[in-house]
Each structure stands twice: as C-alpha cells, then as structure tokens.
UniProtKB/TrEMBL annotation:
It comes from Paenibacillus brasilensis. The lineage of its organism: Bacteria, Bacillati, Bacillota, Bacilli, Bacillales. This is FAD-dependent dehydrogenase.
C-alpha cells in the first residue's frame, strides 16, 4: 500500500464498474457515476465460495468440490487439489 500511495494511485472501493472503454472507466460510487480517464485498469475482485450445485447433486452422485467452490485461495493450490482428486478417482 505504501507503493500505491507513493505513486498517487487512487483506489475505488465499494464501487461498481459500469463500462470500460479504450480511454476510460465509468464507475458508480456512493456519490454517483464518474468517468475516469485510464490507460490501464486493475480489478481486485473479492470472491466467495459457491458450492450450491454440489449440495443439490450430492444425494445422486459422487461429488468432489474443487478450487474456489471449495475454498477461495491461490490458483496453484486449486490446481494441486484438482490433480490429487483426479488421481484418486
């Protein structure tokens, strides 16, 4: 965060991206819609596990929940778990 502040990077939290164009990003914040000039856009999006489909299928099929559906984490951890699960089948 120190590097972001040192480089005067503005972070928009609790904002909704309405549109990304070749030269700008239009966002909606608590203050309303804003158009931001941008040559580069970095999205940091939160995630939550969602295994509702597995819950519906578990009574009929053998179900293995993998990756972010199981627990939100690092991509390599998800790939490793998928590999171990595939080898166990």
């Amino acid at each position: 965060m120190k590097s972001l502040k040192a480089n005067e990077v503005t972070a928009y939290v609790n904002s909704k991206v309405l549109e990304i164009t070749n030269t700008s990003v239009i966002i909606e914040t608590e203050e309303g819609a804003q158009s931001l000039l941008a040559s580069l856009v970095v999205l940091a999006i939160g995630s939550r596990s969602n295994n509702s489909l597995a819950a519906k299928l578990v009574d009929k099929y053998s179900v293995k929940v993998l990756g972010d559906a199981s627990v939100v984490g690092k991509v390599l951890d998800g790939i490793n778990l998928a590999n171990k699960t595939a080898l166990a089948i």
